[in-house]
Amino acid sequence: xxxxxxxxxxxxxxxxxxxxxxxxxxxxxxxxxxxxxxxxxxxxxxxxxxxxxxxxxxxxxxxxxxxxxxxxxxxxxxxxxxxxxxxxxxxxxxxxxxxxxxxxxxxxxxxxxxxxxxxxxxxxxxxxxxxxxxxxxxxxx
Length: 141
Prior knowledge:
Elements: H1 10-13, H2 15-30, H3 35-71, H4 76-105, H5 109-138
Helix pairs in contact: 2-3, 2-5, 3-4, 4-5
Protein name: DUF2231 domain-containing protein
Pfam families: DUF2231
Domain DUF2231: 7-139
């Protein structure tokens, strides 16, 4: 019998925040040229992505047991790195979201550049988190 909700849930839900965060980062960079449009788009992408990121982060713990069961102890080499980068990514995008809300009420040119820098850092962290997830799953093949 097929189930509607996959087990573990983490691999099924993690890709939504990844896509939203990458687009939010891109929109933050583009907001340097057209802030009226891209600020709003970036805020939507970042806020929905961060909500999904929190959910994805907490579903990761359930996926560890399944990964160990399927792939064995070899996942341990990259599991810690994946978990650490996932936490750094989540915290970075929470900070971005907080600063975006501040920008709604108090626009600031310096803060805009800080946001762009954090957006680039966040995108790099998303890449590193995904890289170690891939190494975790496929390094033995």
